[in-house]
Amino acid sequence: MSPPPSSTYERLRIFIAERMRMSHVYQPLMLMELLGRRSPAPAEDVARRILGEDVTQIDYYTERVKRMVGKVLTGNGITHCERGLYSLVGGDELSDVERDLLLELCRQRLDSFREQRGDEAFAHRSRNRTPISGSIKYRVLTRARGRCECCGAHEHQRALEVDHVVPKNHGGSDDISNLQALCFRCNAGKRDTDSTDFRGVVASYRYREEACVFCALEGSGRVLLENELAVCIADAYPVTPGHSLVIPRRHVADGLELHQPEWNAAVDLLKQRREQLSNVDHSITGWNVGLNSGEAAGQTVFHAHWHLIPRRQGDCAEPRGGVRGVIAERKGY
User: Fold this and answer.
1) Which of 23, 187, 190, 240 has the lowest tally of Cβ within 10 angstroms?
2) Domain count of the chain?
3) DSSP characters for 65-86?
């Protein structure tokens, strides 16, 4: 006959079965680590348990094995790969003692490497010498709606990383407008490829056209708000008080031809300017946001720009239709 359950067992059983509210997998994994040992567990051991269940991390290191370490060892005749399975060449000839000696030698090499490199041992998992803070990473991933901004993979499909649009070693800043969400595959591809369209894109962010009035804004004193890829100014011929323009720094005629990070940067400034105006002018009750693209659409300055137009009750006789008013006879419906 089995002994009656202990009070601790009942307390834990009730918590796990009925009271534990889970927003992620962490609580049961921590409990499993503690239940599986008799001694207290340091946070690092709990973290290893969680990492062991994180399929995105497993996916990441599976790719590293296939593309890097597995390729190198196989190329040196040390390992053999067949149908995704790796084996040591001649491994069946090793005795247990020989295996133990080789294991110890590997451990010595690891310890020596870590002693020399310290925190840099896993620098490939952080693109910067100063890691991006958790709050900034959250904002970048939220802005991207949890998807890679290159291939569209969701964070549950592949681990997402925060990448610098303009690389740090090319003078890029840690400002959020210079950050984008890339899955580890796209980020690795961007890093490892010597000649790609993306490198041309990076260079293009610095392009300015000499005779363009909007390219000449930097240092003019007109800039109200700015980030790495866009600026915000007051419109010189405002439709309503507070009418503002958000302009990408790169000279592009058609706003629809901008790259996703530039859209992110422009939208961020539109939101900032809207909040700024709302805080100082409580008569604003609506907004028109518009992008003129092409001469037929009314564009006169051929450097892409968004209009942010504050609206107030009674500022025109009939506001119904909003931006449909670009063709006056079609505004009403």
Assistant:
1) 23
2) 4
3) IIIIIHHHHHHTTSEEEETTEE
Residue 290: both structure tokens together: 């518009």
**Which structural domain, as residue segments, surrounds residue 183?**
132-204
154 classed as catalytic: no
Closest CA to 222 of 209, 211, 230, 231: 231
The angle subtended at Cα 162 by Cα 59 and Cα 214, nearest 5°, is 145
Answer for the pair 218, 197: CB distance below 8 angstroms, yes or no. no
Give pLDDT, residue 213.
Answer: 94
* Angle separating helix axes 55-64 and 184-192, nearest 10 degrees: 30
In the numeric block, which tokens belong to residue 115? 């002693």
Backbone angles phi, psi at 234, to 5 degrees: -80, 140
Question: What count of Cα atoms within 13 Å lies in the side-chain half-sphere of residue 10?
Answer: 4
Asked if residue 209 is part of any domain, the answer here is no
Q: Which of 24-28, 36-40, 43-47, 127-131 has the lowest mean pLDDT?
A: 127-131
218 within a domain of the structure (yes/no): no
The active-site residue, picked from 259, 303, 305, 307, is 305
Domain finish residue from 142, 176, 204: 204
Location of structure tokens 């994180």: 54
b vs e for 268-306, b when ≥16 Cβ sit within 10 Å of the residue's Cβ?
bbbebbbeebeeeeeebeeebeebbbeeeeebeebbbbb
Identify the three-state secondary structure at position 307.
strand
Same domain, 196 and 228: no
pLDDT of residue 154: 76
Query: What is the C-alpha R_g of the chain?
Result: 28
Is residue 26 helix, strand or coil? helix
Report DSSP letters for 87-136, one per residue: EETTGGG--HHHHHHHHHHHHHHHHHHHHHHGGGGGGGG-SSSSPPPHHH
Higher pLDDT, 1 or 81: 81
Render pLDDT for 59-74 as a digit per residue (tens, 0 to 9): 777 877 887 888 888 8
Query: Do the domain assignments include residue 212?
Result: no
